[in-house]
Write a structure and sequence with these properties.
Chain lengths: 439, 497
């Protein structure tokens, strides 16, 4: 574990020295230290990006699995330097699919740099989608599991959305984020926002409304002292998705930043939401007025989908008041004059089990209540889920109880007679058991 | 049924301009066999200012009665000292004549304003005013609290009688400063309340009633403490006398509270207050000067029908003896209540319609007649449908005396408002009650709650973790005191994404 180079006055280490260090070092953490300090900051990356004195590309000499850390540094430097030749796509993909995650975790900032470099390289060669494969490998292999938020999540999702490869994002989106570890990845609040916003867009494009709603909601309710513009955009899309899904908006959770709610109410979106659901002509009239705004903010697609769903919600309202209704009457209420169109919509709704109705030969529709049916398996499954959820919550609570801050705070208020709080820490039953045993 | 009124309204809307009922559509009520109304009997229960006020209102609302009203009003106004009011009678008539055209005879045919009387009264009023003001100045310079208070009070009374209500109110409030005992405060409050009721200024009544009640409490206590010790036997009698005094004032306060609630559209509270009112005797001088016992009966019944459930109506009105005395004054109210309790809703609606004229003519009630009728109608519909699981719309419409279309509209409105839990079968014209499968609904609710809770918990945990890791959206350093007030979206942070 000799540390060459830095003790020599004047001359900083050359790439050859670095290479030998990489190949001979036995402890990854000290290697990490070395790589960070072997040269003054400005020249570090240039050195890393250069070629060996023999003219060889250092990447060919190093082995991915054992020298992950070294290759990581070199690759990330190469991708960001203007002068050095960009590594080929196959090199990058190979690295990403075979690198050693534990080593890589020693230098999370370089990993982020690497990912950003990959995106840049792909964009400059006009084939942004080539970045997807490598980024996918990175994002799935780097964190211990996908539920840990990393910078890679945000970068990957952004690329997926930019290249419109929404389905490639699905495996990543399927695992909800539950853990945040800043030592794992150099996170910024924006990563959380961008990931969930892009995730929402991807899911929305795939018409998976329930999941899209959840992602947008996470972006909107992210803790904030001052709301970010992206949160307002997410809120607008959230509202539109809720209209498509439920026919009305759900009031946002209490911890949402109030200015977001205010902004939305004042904007044309607020007016649209208030009007919804209404007859199709009135909705379209409103949209035509604000068309520029909607197009500019790229929400026109969602708005149009919401308008298409409007008759469905109007008809649902009708089912609550009427038992039978003629098709023409329904058309009249909804604002669609063409009877055939109304019939098609209703048949659609029946097929998707949104309403329970029958259309008779003389064009009257008879509604009945939708009776939800549950099988024993459904219930069992739900119970298991709930139990699992409970276990997780208990675990979290135990962790908090043991945490330093909580204990200090609890001790401070000990004299306030807060014994009841500490009782909860013990599983119930212990308190009752002891006296009886003494009898 | 209300067709007469609506047609006239629409006709008059185009012609009328700015009536005294600022902002409200001017109503024109017709008087005919379907709407019997005797102006003389009605107005005979009142005296004084309210007499003239009500007649003025009648003139605006019902031009056909205007000539009669005019003459009665003139006769009464001459008894008082308010020249403005006197003039107002004539002006009002002119205006109505201009709108109504040939229906009613021209003013000159009926009466001429007595200029001579006007001048005389003005002079007299002026003299009185100067005298009182001089008195007030003298007493103020002498700094005798009691006299100042009385001078203010007299001035207040004076301004009230000549119709300058703002000055009257000013003087009454000034006299508050010089009140020494609770009795004084009480007197002052009562005068102000009377003034406010005359002015129909409902929002302020509540404050003064509150003050008056506080004063009343201290008065009754004080009365018990001061005064010579009575011999043991008459202690009870004394106490009763005290209570009787208190009750009288309390009655007036209750009436005032009730009126203020009515004026502010709190029909339920109004009904409760009206029913609390004590015996007729308690009203003493208010009866006739401000409000008639019959009025109390009508207001209370209408408000109660619109808001109380049936059992309450039975206990609080029909079994209430004290209130029974009020009902005696206006017998049709009893009929109204009986029909309602016995489900004869058609009768209820008919009676309401018949006496609509009487209601619109009342100065406190006319703004609310429409609302109250709607409320009563909705309640009747809901009550009627309650025992049925399905009923033919035709039968229901017969019970209410409407056409099937009208009924359907009403029923749909109620269903959408959630008052009736049923569905309309438009093809067969049947109203069918909704049967909810409780078991399935319970399961569905439980499952949904479970899923929602899990999702919410997950999101909250994430949020907690984000906060712990300090991944909170913060303004960049150096941004001093961001001003939220403008609320413009560009203030939001635009991250580099």
């Amino acid at each position: 574990m000799n540390v060459p180079g830095s003790s020599q006055t004047g001359a900083s280490a050359s790439l050859d020295d670095v290479l030998s260090q990489i190949t001979t070092s036995s402890s990854p953490s000290s290697l990490n230290q070395y790589l960070r300090s072997f040269a003054p900051k400005e020249s570090r990356d240039t050195i890393l990006a250069s070629t060996l004195s023999s003219g060889q590309d250092p990447l060919t000499v190093l082995d991915t699995r054992t020298n992950t850390l070294g290759i990581l540094y070199i690759l990330s430097a190469r991708l960001h330097s203007a002068s050095a030749p960009t590594p080929t796509l196959s090199v990058i993909e190979d690295f990403c699919s075979q690198f050693n995650p534990e080593q890589a975790r020693l230098a999370p900032d370089r990993v982020t740099l690497l990912a950003k470099g990959i995106v840049r390289a792909a964009e400059s060669s006009n084939n942004a989608k080539y970045a997807l494969a490598s980024l996918y490998s990175l994002v799935t292999r780097y964190p211990p599991d996908l539920s840990y938020l990393t910078t890679l999540h945000a970068i990957y999702l952004k690329t997926c959305v930019a290249t419109r490869h929404f389905t490639s994002a699905l495996p990543v989106l399927a695992v909800p984020i539950t853990a945040v570890d800043t030592s794992l990845s150099d996170l910024h609040y924006n990563d959380n926002l961008v990931y969930h916003y892009s995730g929402g867009i991807a899911l929305g494009a795939l018409k998976r409304w329930r999941e899209a709603e959840e992602f947008f909601e996470i972006c909107v309710t992210a803790p904030a002292q001052v709301p970010a513009a992206i949160q307002l955009e997410a809120y607008k899309k959230l509202v539109l998705v809720q209209l498509i899904q439920y026919g009305e908006i759900v009031s946002p959770p209490k911890h949402t930043h109030p200015s977001l709610i205010r902004f939305l109410k004042a904007s044309p979106y607020g007016t649209f939401v208030k009007m919804y659901p209404a007859r199709v002509e009135s909705l379209r009239a409103l949209v035509a007025k604000e068309q520029d705004l909607f197009t500019q903010e790229r929400n026109l697609g969602l708005i149009n989908q919401a308008i298409d769903r409007a008759p469905v919600w109007l008809i649902k309202k009708l089912t609550a008041t009427y038992l039978t209704l003629g098709l023409s009457d329904i058309g009249h209420e909804v604002g669609i004059d063409n009877v055939e169109e109304v019939r098609a919509i209703i048949l659609d709704m029946i097929a998707q089990e949104e309403i329970n109705a029958t259309i008779s030969s003389d064009n009257t529709v008879t509604f009945a209540d939708v009776i939800p049916k549950f099988s024993k398996d459904d219930l069992d499954r739900l119970l298991v889920q709930a139990q699992e959820h409970n276990r997780v919550l208990l675990k979290v609570e135990r962790a908090v109880n043991a945490s330093k801050e909580y204990v200090t705070k609890a001790l401070k208020h000990k004299d306030d007679g807060n014994w009841g709080v500490e009782e909860d820490m013990f599983p119930p039953g212990i308190g009752g058991g002891t006296p009886w045993a003494e009898d | 049924m209300d067709v007469d009124i609506i047609e006239e309204e629409q006709q008059m809307m185009s012609q009328s301009h700015g009536s005294r009922l600022a902002g409200k559509r001017p109503l024109r009520i017709t008087v005919d066999e379907a709407h019997p109304f005797e102006i003389e009997t009605y107005i005979s229960s009142y005296t004084g200012r309210t007499y003239v006020d009500r007649l003025l209102h009648i003139m605006s609302v019902c031009p056909a009665l205007a000539p009669q009203a005019l003459q009665l009003a003139v006769a009464e106004a001459l008894k008082g000292r308010d020249t403005n009011l006197y003039r107002e009678i004539f002006n009002r008539y002119e205006r109505i004549h201009a709108d109504a055209g040939d229906e009613i005879p021209h003013l000159s045919v009926l009466a001429e304003p007595d200029e001579h009387w006007i001048e005389e009264t003005n002079l007299r009023n002026q003299a009185e005013k100067t005298k009182l003001e001089v008195e007030l100045k003298t007493y103020s310079s002498n700094m005798i609290k009691e006299s100042i208070r009385m001078a203010h009070r007299d001035l207040g009374d004076f301004y009230r009688s000549i119709g300058e209500h703002n000055s009257a109110l000013k003087h009454y409030t000034k006299s508050r400063e010089f009140c020494t005992t609770s009795q004084h405060v009480l007197d002052m409050c009562m005068s102000v309340i009377e003034l406010l009721v005359e002015q129909r200024n409902y929002s302020h009544i509540a404050t003064y009633v509150f003050k008056a009640e506080a004063a009343l409490d201290s008065v009754t206590i004080a009365r018990g403490q001061t005064g010579p010790e009575p011999p043991a036997g008459s202690a009870q009698a004394n106490k009763d006398k005290r209570n009787a005094e208190r009750e009288k004032v309390q009655t007036k306060l209750d009436v005032a509270t009730a009126l203020s609630h009515l004026g502010q559209n709190n029909y339920e509270k109004a009904a409760q207050s009206f029913l609390k009112v004590g015996p007729v005797k308690g009203l003493e001088d208010w009866s006739g000067k401000l409000i008639a016992p019959g009025d109390i009966a009508i207001y209370a019944t209408l408000c109660a029908l619109a808001t109380f459930p049936r059992p309450s109506i039975r206990t609080q009105i029909l079994d209430n003896d004290i209130f029974g005395m009020y009902i005696e004054q206006e017998p049709y109210v009893r009929e109204l209540l009986e029909s309602y309790m016995n489900n004869r809703f058609k009768n209820v609606l008919e009676i309401l319609e018949r006496y609509a004229t009487r209601h619109y003519i009342d100065i406190h009630l006319y703004q609310h007649v429409h609302n109250l009728t709607n409320l009563i109608r909705s309640k009747s519909l809901v009550l009627y449908f309650q025992p049925f699981s399905s009923i033919k719309l035709e039968r229901m419409s017969q019970a209410f005396g409407w056409s099937v279309q009208e009924l359907e509209q009403q029923v749909v409105a109620l269903i959408q408002a959630g008052e009736i839990k049923a569905r309309v079968d438009r093809q067969n014209k049947i109203l069918k009650a909704k049967e909810i499968d409780q078991r399935a609904a319970l399961y569905a609710k439980a499952i949904k709650s479970g899923q929602d809770m899990q999702a919410a918990n997950r999101k909250l945990l994430l949020r907690m973790r984000l906060q712990q890791a300090d991944l909170v959206v913060k303004p960049p350093k150096g941004q001093q005191g961001y001003n939220y007030g403008t609320g413009h979206p560009t203030e939001l942070l635009s991250g580099d994404y």
